[in-house]
């Protein structure tokens, strides 16, 4: 007992015992503007204020290394910080935060300006090292919840669980499998009406403990490298994600076609089969934009080749597909077959593009093509070579690159620790580079293909690290065609959204196994509300195209994909928003209803918002009734316009033909007429649905050509649309940008506004409007429907000029 107390005492004062030691007392402090340089008894550190709400903490045992990150692309912004020192502590004050760094021993605590604890080190444990493993322990706050961390299984609230980040190939993974394919070491803590984010920017294996097996602390740590974390405060979780993506960057606008329906399978070949799929989609009037080729398009799985038997003239095939409105995406794997005479390999070898053992021989591992070398995407040489090779796909008419197996995955999954990577000029081992490999492959594919195409490429990646959103969309790998996998998929996409990745999808229908008809239909309905909608299935499974499950299924699926296409103006505007503020399209209810305990219950944790208007309640394909939770506010049933009061749960009958979807009162939803693909022009009228509510909303409507980067030069059409229930008006704001909208008219469809007088004023001279008091079709995917009795949906059509227009009601 005595000995035990002695050990604790040593730890508390920061002296080392055996291999465990904490930082110890602060022995010197240097203040450099918004930065503190600290020396402790057993560590050195740097605390930097990045903005009034962001503080970075760096700690290491001996000295701080090169300040380099694959994730963070933006540095601190000029921030006023008051620094106050006493013998006990150093206090930093920003407009929003008080940070107290205790000296004896070193201990960090973050407070609101009025003194409420947001997050603090656990007294006595703080930050400590076991050999080279470093961990920071945080006091577990009463009622604290933890959400986010990217592609992580489990419930929405991760309290009581622990997770590891080590990117892994997971064929047919179980719904409790951790780690999966990608690393996003960023989570959000919630307690007492406060929220904060912690981003641990460390590429080594990292571990997070959200109070698993302990009631004392949450913790995060790494198997090497520095303790290097960003604490991010925010009034709303949205603000925290925006700050986080301010550091790690945001998505660029993807091509519009990539928002359309994507038909995949492992694998479509030969060319006649690809054309049959394309034709059938058109014949059956299933709107679609993409067809994806899996590994069988290659010559013996060799990257950057075509199997000439199966695909004799890829460019001619993609031209035929393009005529039909289809874009082609091809898979690329990092493994490059080690084969004499294979030009790709020989050029890579000559350029020194591959990762190597310490004795300078290439690391060779086995994957689809057999024994392979692997590009070093963490160095200029490797990327330059890859970017050149990938550019050839542009002349083959390819529009999208699907990066797979980039964890790195090799057969046996035992890549040695001692393989070396360039690491931007400071060579590092596999242990340090593993988790950033996928990110850098996606980056290289993006950079190379963007340049070759000279328009927006579509890039998809299976693996990744924080910052992936700058280059790529992500999907959640080899799931199973099982009910709880579909629901897990929903949570995974929401978690990825919390980690700043807006463009996300899953294998809709399931990769391994085969779904029941009910599950298939439900999954396709939910997939229609995923940012990236990809139907995919494995090599020995039943076909998964929309016509594979019988006529009724086809009809329902057609309805939902059609709805997705009619919602494209809404989705594209939301994508634009994500490029500006990093916010996801698929939004867990925790974003807007953070302090409502009901939304974390397992019965409701899968409900999500698609943009800010739609609430989707996913259920399995086999349930006859479902319990749906309606958070505060009013909700319109998408199909009937019936208004449901929030703050209650309701039992709803479930049918295969309808996915429960509700529209939040006060929402604004732009829609277009049905098209079969994004290159087809819709009619010249934009339908703008507005749903009456006590609280209004703002919607930034955004349009551009959908494929080029001209929008960066001002070639866009953007206006703020405001619904103000207090002033009883809807304002179409003045248009910014030089792009001419494809819509000549805007037809407002007003839901639940009664039948009082409507006037449109404030318009530019010469523009016209007409007020039509007729019901219009609601979102009923089965076809036209009338408004419920006593409930009117009224329309007003205005000319879509660039001037402001105000509709009063
Ligand atoms: C991996 C991918 C899967 C793909 C298969 C063949 O398992 O995750 O989507 O179909 O490889 O390339």
Automatic annotation (TrEMBL):
Where do the Glycoside hydrolase family 31 N-terminal domain residues begin and end?
46-208
**In what residue span(s) does the Glycoside hydrolase family 31 TIM barrel domain sit?**
252-573
Record-linked PROSITE patterns: GLYCOSYL_HYDROL_F31_1 (PS00129)
> Which InterPro entries does the entry link to?
DUF5110, Gal_mutarotase_sf_dom, GH, Glyco_hydro_31_AS, Glyco_hydro_31_C, Glyco_hydro_31_N_dom, Glyco_hydro_31_TIM, Glyco_hydro_b
Where does the record place the DUF5110 domain?
686-752
- Which top-rank group of organisms is this from? Bacteria
Please state which protein family the record places this protein in: Belongs to the glycosyl hydrolase 31 family.
> Which residue intervals define the domain Glycosyl hydrolase family 31 C-terminal in the entry?
582-669
Q: Which UniProt keywords apply?
A: Glycosidase, Hydrolase
Spell out the protein name for this chain. DUF4968 domain-containing protein
